[in-house]
Design a protein that fits this description.
alpha+beta; 101 residues; 4 helices; 3-stranded antiparallel β-sheet; Arc Repressor Mutant, subunit A; elongated
């Protein structure tokens, strides 16, 4: 279907508000720790962890886990694939709002 309003053309991975917010934050900052994402997005550990796993599994974010001062530190960064997916999603949404394909 090539209809302007075909919602099926939107990336389902980016549809969730928290995943979209995380991706836009990472697109601006380049990278962020789990703690920083949690604070900025107002998310719980479990909810954010599940959403970041979905983004990681899609190849949209890369995850770096290490220890700092004997505490786990997880940092996420947006990948090239993730940036392209986000830009495509936003372009498609803008086209839908403007009523064109």
């Amino acid at each position: 279907m090539t209809d302007v309003y075909d919602h099926r053309q939107l990336d389902v991975v980016l549809q969730a508000r928290l995943r979209l917010a995380a991706m836009t934050l990472l697109a601006v900052t380049g990278a962020a720790t789990f703690a920083a994402l949690k604070e900025r997005l107002g998310a719980s550990d479990g909810n954010l962890g599940a959403h970041m796993k979905k983004l990681r599994d899609a190849g949209y974010v890369a995850e770096d886990k290490r220890f700092e001062n004997d505490k786990p530190l997880t940092t996420y960064r947006i990948t090239a694939k993730g940036r392209r997916a986000l830009e495509t999603y936003l372009d498609r949404l803008a086209a839908m709002v403007k009523g064109r394909t």
